[in-house]
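Each letter names a residue; the fold follows as tokens. Both lines appear below:
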Amino acid sequence: MSLGKLYGVGLGPGDPELMTVKAARLISEAQVIAYHCARHGRSIARSVAEPYLREGQIEEKLVYPVTTETTDHPGGYEGAIADFYELSAKRLAEHLDAGRDVVLLCEGDPFFYGSYMYMHERLAGRFEAIVVPGVTSVSAASSVLGRPLVQRDEVLTVLPGTLPAPELARRLADTDAAAVLKLGRTFGAVREALAEAGKLDDAVYVERATWGQQRIEPFGDVDPSTVPYFSLALLPSPAYASRQAPPAAPAPAHENGEGGEVVVVGLGPAGPEWLTPEASAELAAAEHVVGYGPYVARVPQKAGQQRHASGNRVEADRAVEALNLAASGARVAVVSSGDPGVFAMASAVLEQVAAGHGAGVRVRIVPGVTAAQAAASRVGAPLGHDYCVLSLSDRLKPWEIIEKRLDAAGAADLVLALYNPASRSRTTQLADARAVLLRHRAPETPVVVARDVGGPEEDIRTTTLGDLDPSTVDMRCLLIVGSSRTRVDGGVVWTPRSY
């Protein structure tokens, strides 16, 4: 006897007419219809599929045993729900072993926060499992609102409301459009996150989209006590919203008639403990924050502050964007990791000013702790005497110049802090640099390899120039190569100040 097939069938957002033709056919043909329900026995999934059910079908109610608040299971809620899924899988497996096809109903799409996936991971290895997609609640909310989710190059982010409010705020601030699901008891935290990200006024509350009792309101106007689980927050396409709204008044210029100000801020090498008080104050005062995406994400959230994140290789474009924003009178912070004047955005901004951008805009630089200083502090004082800072990246200057400078620094017996030592596309430069320095330095010269200083993957190790393995170094590393005077005593690396 052949085994039955398991079908995870997406029902869409609630309107039975939004179910796919394939879903309707499978439901009407199945021998067994399974669905999740609460202890009262009523099932939203079954009510959506009811027009396509037929007499004689076996119905398997998978009754959730507990809520998150009350359970006497020794493993708590997680233990109780795990046992429930195991038991449910065994019940469905009995039908499948007997050769009966099983359709497991799932609101929305089975693989989009769907309950079906827990049965899939338990049964797909033993039985043929077929997933039938459904219209998601996010698409349904956009359609009933009558506004597009995203357009052109906009980014849509889908988030669970169960994330901590600070994490929600960070992600909401860094995206164009968003949908936040799983509201209910998380509504207050989601509202807080939207306000912190400066997007509460743009958010729309959508409840039971496409149902007869659907509800649409500005998110900030909703009474938290009335919010069910089947609701979401939607931040639709900002481009569409801007076209529908009346033209905004131009940003006010400063009283002296000039444009605003660009402050290029150093964030230090890692978390907030590396941020100086001056940098913190400038970030808090800024109306716009511009920078490489991961660096913008490190800036503390501020209500109403607009964020402009971009990729790693568009420094000139970032600088122009910041200057254009400031030219209209805004206060703009351009952020860099470490110190903005060390292989970072300070020179990129000033270069664009020299090219004629941002007329009337003032530019200030706020320093930060450099990666070289941070790395040195972890091992002692290797930069205690004269030292040289070099980037091994040949993206903006030819390797011949880098090699000439390495040779000169080696001959001058300077300690070297080497930035950008390697990347996926630059795999030979560090070995070449090592060879150049070995012309002037003994193989026993200390080398500090510092990776992700101050971050969760921090790794600091000390080796020698002779033993340095370039294959162990990546773009997140900074190297400090000692001079002939640099010493290692009991694991401490230091360079004497006197000769």
Notes: The chain has 15 helices and 23 strands.
